[in-house]
Amino acid sequence: MHTIHNWETWLGTDEAGKGDYFGPVVVAGVHVNAACREAFAELGITDGKTLSIKRVRQLAEAMRCGYNESIAVVQKMPAAYNALYDDFRRRGKNLNHLLGALHAEVIETLHARSGERHVCVDRFANADVITPQISTAIRRDLRIKQVPKAERDIAVAAASIIARDAFLAGMETLSKKYEFQLPRGSYRVTKAGKEFVALHGASALGEVAKLHFSLTEDVLAPAVFRFSAL
Fold first, then answer.
1. Are 123 and 212 part of one and the same domain?
2. In terms of domains, do 114 and 206 share one?
3. Does residue 167 sit in the same domain as residue 185?
4. Percentage of residues in the chain with pLDDT exceeding 70?
5. Does residue 4 fall inside a structural domain?
6. What is the 3-state secondary structure (H, E, C) of the chain?
7. Which residues are 32's β-sheet partners?
8. Other beta carbons within 10 Å of 141
9. Are the C-beta atoms of residues 103 and 134 closer than 8 Å to each other?
10. d(CA 169, CA 138)
11. pLDDT, tens only, 91-137
12. Cβ distance 144 to 121 under 8 Å?
């Protein structure tokens, strides 16, 4: 994989689910050292967004089996995510600030375990929305590099796979709970949303979907019936 720094050990973080109407938002982090870096390379770790679902699940399981203490995950299922999003909006913040808080939580967790100072993040915002949300007790100790398309870094690639796997697991959990197959993505999901509301009611939509998406208005809009002239 491509090298974007010369660190011997470091943390990589990435997120999944932020562009999907249904399902959770997940941020994952992976701590990499020389031993697991070699193992990850042998496994064929690469950007989780480019892999099949089957391969994501296989690689995530392999990483957890051998390096579970090097992995941290923060998952916000839709109900918790919607409440958190509303809280950030009330404070004049946006989605990037919310994601920054989740990345900060993952970084703090792995730093507490490993003492690692170096962090590589797949950049998702123009401004630094992560560092200000990290505890002041450790903020000065960290060197955070936020890079576009950072999945070329093996730690970030590993985190992208873990995050994607957790997102898929969350989607499965919700689909089973409501006995309704929730589609991934945000394109052509309005029909599924309407069907879900018809089955479970509008009040349940926030349990499975990210309500701030603009298509929520379409999902909740009453059906329009057209009658042809006799």
1. no
2. no
3. no
4. 96
5. no
6. CCCCCCCCCEEEEEEECCCCCECCEEEEEEEECHHHHHHHHHHCCCCHHHCCHHHHHHHHHHHHHHHHHHEEEEEECHHHHHHHHHHHHHCCCCHHHHHHHHHHHHHHHHHHHHCCCEEEEECCCCCCCCHHHCCHHHHCCCEEEEECCHHHCHHHHHHHHHHHHHHHHHHHHHHHHHCCCCCCCCCCCHHHHHHHHHHHCHHHHHHCECCCCCHHHHHHCCCCCCCCCC
7. 10
8. 11
9. no
10. 32
11. 999 999 999 999 999 999 999 999 999 999 989 998 899 999 999 98
12. yes
193 and 134 housed in the same domain: no
Query: Bridge partners of 125?
Result: none
The CA-CA-CA angle for residues 123, 61, 52, to 5°, reads 65
Cα(48)–Cα(57) distance, integer angstroms: 10
Q: β-pairing, 25-32 with 10-16?
A: antiparallel
- Is the residue at 97 inside a domain? yes
Sheet of 25-32, strand order: 71-76, 25-32, 10-16, 118-122, 143-147
**153 located within any domain:** yes
pTM value surpassing 0.90: yes
- Residue 227: inside a domain: no
Structural domains in the chain (count): 2
- Asked if residue 81 and residue 32 are part of one domain, the reply reads yes
Parent domain of 152: 10-175
